[in-house]
Amino acid sequence: MKRKPILSFYQCVCILSVFCLFFPPVARLLSAGAPGGLDELPVGFLSGSTVLLLLPVVDEYVTVSLYYALAAAGVCVGGVLAGVTAMAWLPGMLAVHGACLVRRCRIRHMQLQPLFKNMAVWYNVESHARFIYSLALYLLVASMAGVSALPWLKWVLLPLTCALYAVLLMRVRTGRTCFLRPSREQEIKDLIRGNLRTPPAQAGPKTDELTRMTRLYERVVSLMEQKLPFLDEEFSLDDLAGAVFTNRGYLSRTINVLSGRNFSQFVNYFRVRYGVELIRKDPRLRLINVAQMCGFHSSPSFNAAFKVNMGETPSAFLERLRSERFAK
User: Fold this and answer.
1) Could you give the dihedral angle defined by the CA atoms of residues 41, 45, 47 and 48, in that order, rounded to the nearest 10 degrees?
2) Residue 191: its pLDDT value, please?
3) DSSP secondary structure code for residue 3 in this structure
4) What is the Cα–Cα distance from 213 to 284, expressed in whole angstroms?
5) Secondary structure class of 326 (helix, strand, coil)
6) Cβ atoms of residues 217 and 207 within 8 Å
């Protein structure tokens, strides 16, 4: 059984960002024998924010980010120890950050398949938030150049740089983007995870048609949960329409509007959920047998649907379940 590391990757990066935050003013204090004043505090917040912005979003590899975070911290330490001004080494940290962003974008768009998965919605939310915060970081670093000409500017930069660092630290600790409202983020996550009971966001009051669709949708979900018709591999939209006494066109539209999925994705959600229950009851089951018991035609289709709805492969889920039970 693997031993858990003392510090997680995210904790290591947070510690590294705190180091970059305090190192410039502390080094100034030790070298000059006097505090650096307010000028050093925005520099510390900006260098710490740069490190926090190197953290990956949920679909990115963490090891690469650690290398870039160490490189950015190295630029900070090297610049301070060399005795050069902050405006000489802060752009170096931004160059490391920019190189990381370019690499992330290139890797993301070279992998076309993940761009069309349900989780791509959340990936895009996180990526857009990261770009907005990066833009704010770049603008604040550029504004640092005007402090010598406009002394009052440091009083403006101090709360702004502190606020940016606080938001980024909250983003790391809570897993939120701090870019959308919490309720909106939760709505997106629920839809991705397969919470088919999440009501759709509406621009205005409920219409009569939406009310009818909601009633039909509730009947459909109740049927799927109680009768389990999806266990039949040949279960089709026509079968479901006949069971709830409606036509296939209206039923398909209802499922699309209220669940955000097409019929196949809708049925696979229930199949995957049933498969999770089977695995939890008996972890000794072979995954190929679980796939057949859930109504899937093949193991690859089961694996793909499981990954979309659960965020991990069936084998990874089974291994994690076994390790948790062994730990108890």
Assistant:
1) 130
2) 62
3) P
4) 41
5) helix
6) no
Q: Which two tokens stand for residue 206?
A: 């409920």
Among the listed residues 65, 59, 142, 139, the one whose alpha carbon sits nearest the alpha carbon of residue 101: 65
What pLDDT shows up at residue 32?
A: 66
Contacts of 30 (CB under 8 A, 6+ apart): none
Q: How many CB atoms lie within 10 A of CB 138?
A: 16
Q: Summarize pLDDT for 290-302 with one digit per residue, the tens.
A: 999 999 988 888 8
According to the model, what pLDDT value does residue 45 have?
92
pLDDT attached to residue 190: 66
Radius of gyration of the chain (CA): 26
What is the pLDDT at residue 135?
A: 93
**What residues in the chain have per-residue pLDDT under 70?**
1-8, 32-39, 58-59, 61, 109-120, 189-207, 325-328
The answer to whether 46 touches 140, Cβ cutoff 8 Å, is yes
What pLDDT is stored for residue 91 in this prediction? 92
Residue 147: how many CA atoms within 13 Å on its side-chain side?
A: 21
pTM confidence score: 0.60
- How far from 7 is each of 4, 11, 13, CA to CA, in Å? 8, 6, 10
Q: Which residues contact 217 (CB under 8 A, 6 or more apart)?
A: 254, 255, 258, 259
The answer to whether 189 and 122 have CB atoms below 8 angstroms apart is yes
Q: Per residue, what are the HEC states of 95-140? A: HHHHHHHHHHHHHHHHCCHHHHCCCHHHHHHHHHHHHHHHHHHHHH
How distant is the alpha carbon of residue 243 from its chain centre?
Answer: 38
Q: Check residue 203 and give its pLDDT.
A: 40
Measured CA to CA, the distance from residue 257 to residue 55 in angstroms comes to 35
How far apart (Å, rounded) are the C-alpha atoms in residues 89 and 20? 12
pLDDT at 36: 55
Q: Would you state the structure tokens that stand for residue 267, as one six-digit string?
A: 């049925």
User: What would the DSSP string read from start to end of 9-22?
Assistant: HHHHHHHHHHHHHH
Q: Closest by alpha carbon to 220, among 243, 187, 188?
A: 243
Residue 260, helix vs strand vs coil: coil
